[in-house]
Amino acid sequence: EVQLVESGGGLVQAGGSLRLSCAASGLTFDDYAIGWFRQVPGKEREGVSCFANRDGSTYYPDSVKGRFTISADNAKNTVYLQMTSLKPEDTAVYYCAAARWDSVYYSGTSMFGIIDYWGQGTQVTVSS
Questions:
Q1: What is the mean pLDDT of the chain?
Q2: pLDDT tops 80 at residue 113
Q3: What is the rounded average pLDDT of the residues 48-69?
Q4: pLDDT at position 98, please?
Q5: Among 24, 58, 62, 114, which has the highest number of CB atoms less than 10 A from its own CB?
Q6: Contact yes or no for 21/122 (Cβ under 8 A)
Q7: What is the DSSP string of 46-111?
Q8: How far is it, in rounded angstroms, from Cα 112 to Cα 67?
Q9: Cα 109 to Cα 98: distance, rounded to the nearest angstrom
Q10: Other C-beta atoms lying within 10 Å of the C-beta of residue 72
């Protein structure tokens, strides 16, 4: 059974930090890129970061560049999203997803790929 399990969400004041974790099991880590997305009800889902273990590449859109950092612990099959200088507009449910590594590409600020698996999400709330 393939599972992606997010953790680390919570309530934080503007300017604070949180670290999200995405623990992957049941899949071959090198075959996938792990992306982080966020969702606000009534808004389009937004990709905020991506990491491909196969080549170590990372991606960030302008909305989070310089504030969010994605990293991985290969031994634990876990991807982290370190979020700093958080803003109220960062409030959302954050999801991790596994996309086939050879399907992933970027165009403008958008992330594209064939996503096979999604986690259940973790709530991040940033107070003003």
A1: 95
A2: yes
A3: 93
A4: 97
A5: 24
A6: no
A7: EEEEEEETTTTEEE--TTTTTTEEEEEEGGGTEEEEEE-S--GGG-EEEEEEEEEGGG-EEETTEE
A8: 22
A9: 19
A10: 19
